[in-house]
Amino acid sequence: MTVRIHPTALVEEGVQLGDGTAVWDNAHLRAGAVVGRDCIIGGKSYLADGVVVGDRVKINANVYLCSGVTIETGVMVSAHVVFTNDRFPRATTPDLAALRSSAIDDHTESTTVREGATVGAGAVIGPGLIIGRFAMVGMGAVVTRDVPDFHLVVGSPARSTAIVCRCGPPLLRLTQVLPVDGASALTCAGCARTYSFDGLAVTESDG
């Protein structure tokens, strides 16, 4: 198995690419980016210095991954997703005398997308966040707070609207009145996986 890099892609010296990974047309991977095994880096996507991507990750076309972003194993990042890493960005120093560096500094905040999650097309992800395991971010969502494991969030700002299974479909639609006392059992009609839902917390059942 080998790494495949499209002739028009720019992969700077110092980028680490795992076996079986494909980098498509006009993608730009900056020195210091790390990509795991069996990944797809879509056309015209940008991975900044310090980006870490796990194994078997799909990054579709025109995705912007800034410094400080970690993508764990099995994540899907759909087309035109934008990550951010500075809560109060400015182009220049306060006196306007010089451009601020784009290098990682004290303003850079880290965001992690946990294993198995999906980020829908056109979503914008704010700085310093965690998107939980097997969570799903709806297309066009603006994420300004952490997303719990197995939650579907939509809108601007994004809000939880459902609990989803590992295989994707909703297990439970959330209403304005959430269960708060005691745990409820959830079973996926598609794959028969079971979960426990207590308040906002979702836990996979043993076995």
Description:
This protein has 207 residues and is mainly β. It has no helices and 26 strands. The chain has strands spanning 4-5, 10-11, 16-17, 22-23, 28-29, 34-35, 40-41, 46-47, 52-53, 58-59, 64-65, 69-71, 76-77, 82-83, 111-113, 118-119, 124-125, 130-131, 136-137, 142-143, 151-154, 159-164, 170-173, 184-187, 194-198, 201-204. The strands form five sheets. It has a ten-stranded mixed sheet with strand order 1-4-7-10-13-16-19-21-22-23, with no helix packed on it. It has a six-stranded parallel sheet with strand order 3-6-9-12-15-18, with no helix packed on it. Strand 25 and strand 26 form a beta hairpin. The protein is globular and about 55 Å long. The chain starts with a strand and ends with a strand. The model has no long low-confidence stretch (mean pLDDT 93).
Ordered list of secondary-structure elements with their pairings:
Elements: E1 4-5, E2 10-11, E3 16-17, E4 22-23, E5 28-29, E6 34-35, E7 40-41, E8 46-47, E9 52-53, E10 58-59, E11 64-65, E12 69-71, E13 76-77, E14 82-83, E15 111-113, E16 118-119, E17 124-125, E18 130-131, E19 136-137, E20 142-143, E21 151-154, E22 159-164, E23 170-173, E24 184-187, E25 194-198, E26 201-204
Parallel strand pairs: 1-4, 2-5, 3-6, 4-7, 5-8, 6-9, 7-10, 8-11, 9-12, 10-13, 12-15, 13-16, 14-17, 15-18, 16-19, 17-20, 19-21
Antiparallel strand pairs: 21-22, 22-23, 24-25, 25-26
